[in-house]
Amino acid sequence: xxxxxxPVRTAGGASEARPxxxxxxxxxxxxxxxxxxxxPYGEDALIxxxxxxxxxxxxxxxxxxxxxxDLLVREGELTALVGASGSGKSTLLNILAxxxxxxxxxxxxxxxxxxxxxxxxxxxxxxxTVGFIWQRTSRNLLxxxxxxxxxxxxxxxxxxPNGERRWGRGRAERARALELLDLLGxxxxxxxxxxxxxxxxxxxxxxxxxxxNNPSVVLADEPTGExxxxxxxxxxxxxxxxxxxxxxxxxxxxxxDGVSSQVSRxxxxxxxxxxxxxxxxxxxxEGGGESTVSREYTTIDRSGRLQLPPEFTEPLSIRDRVxxxxxxxxxxxxxxxxxxxxxxxxxx
Length: 348
Ligand SMILES: Nc1ncnc2c1ncn2[C@@H]1O[C@H](COP(=O)(O)OP(=O)(O)OP(=O)(O)O)[C@@H](O)[C@H]1O
What we know:
This protein has 348 residues and is an alpha/beta fold.
């Protein structure tokens, strides 16, 4: 039995609250239920992943790369997705890129349902709605084209409203290519081929290529994986610039934990599910000075599941089960096998 003077509702549903406190809890529950009814999941988000599952079967062995992953990304956000090797980052990105389809769950990006797209809308989605930056610089740029020609190419391939080739637009395309290169600090490199650029410069040109058709979302898979720290920071600065100047929503996958100092939102994936989220924002102090505050949150999925980090569970020897207690403004999580719990119950 739980002791103490606060009103408590245990996870099993037994309520020991005094009438006034109980009314408060009932009111909280009613308001939460109303809020859940009123707002469909992810209605204001540009990327919505709802209980996404991806199972790979090779040689009779099944691997659950995504195990019911929920993720919302709102328009205009610059989000980093971090996680250990094998946590499912690339699997998720391939689904969002329209290169792979999930085994179950749902995924929508800018109104495109990624599970039910036909070949025609998939092509359109990949040409107009998403832009990509891959880890291997050679995958992003054609070696025989200059930087400006590489950026202009997606505009040429996009064609007219019905996919037809649009001739005579070369000048407008080149002007936009130069504008984008300028925005990313690469104007001087316009007439150079990839082999004449450093790895970091190639990735900045790749960002311009990804932005060429003014996509709603840019997806980047380890864009700084082959770069040293200083060069990686320049690439992140270019991504931030594209995000703030053009308002493009950007999702970057990386295994580098240090990325949370480069972006305002970092979501971490563990075992095919989102586990924690770090939000970083700039606050102005009373003296007018600015400071950066970052806070880590544990994510809670659509079914109410959350992952307790080992740094919290190990010192308390938490395993198998826990006791949950609902307080008016928080939930308590306590070891489920605490010594004496049964004796206390029996004596009450
Ligand atoms: N095509 C595939 N066939 C079989 N298993 C796969 C396939 N692709 C990924 N997996 C498995 O799914 C899990 C998640 O892989 P994924 O590549 O998404 O992880 P990741 O977080 O991107 O890792 P890394 O940082 O090493 O790229 C891994 O166990 C991987 O072995």
